[in-house]
Design brief:
Number of domains: 1
Shape: globular
Number of helices: 8
Order of helices and strands: HHHHHHHH
Number of strands: 0
Distance between the termini: 19 Å
Structural class: mainly alpha
Strand content: under 5%
Amino acid sequence: MVLALAGGMVTALITYAVSRLADRDPRTVLPPSWRLPLALLAGLLAGAGCAATGEWWNWPVVAVLAVFGVLLGAIDARTKLLPNAVLLHFTAVTLPLLLLAAAASGHWMGLLGAATGAAGLFAVYFVLALISPAGMGMGDVKLAAVLGLIGGWAGAAAWMGTLLGGFLLGGLAGVAVLLARRGSRGSTFPFGPGMLLAAFASLVLLG
């Protein structure tokens, strides 16, 4: 519990610093007043996620997903964009953490699952983007590859939860916007927040 609390505090600090990545694209700049609440949310998620995750070698992965999940979710919800700068950093940090997790656990085959999961989720979203480019952007496709990497590492159940949960939560968000009369049937809705929440829940609860 103490380690989970410490991890949450460190995650909050990292999130506050990493949130400046959103400023690299003028289209995705977040209000400065958002930084502290987002950092606290990421810290809370990371602390709870680590407490619920038995394998300590997965704790850094949980924390990184909380950091970038909160940041990307906020950016996408506000601007309907998923900036490459943030996605690249997310990927660059996730890959070595999975290698470290494999080394610590001895579960080297998990890396094959991660690679397969990334390719599989990327393919699903890429096909959907080709079919309906107005409803699915390439940012969602790139994000799917990273989330598939994490879901594939965590196992088949976590990968499937990431896939199905993303669509379910994305659909519910769209319905909520319509019911709130803030959109129409032709409106587009950000899929990123739902994808990220599904990936986090799947990693913690099903991994």
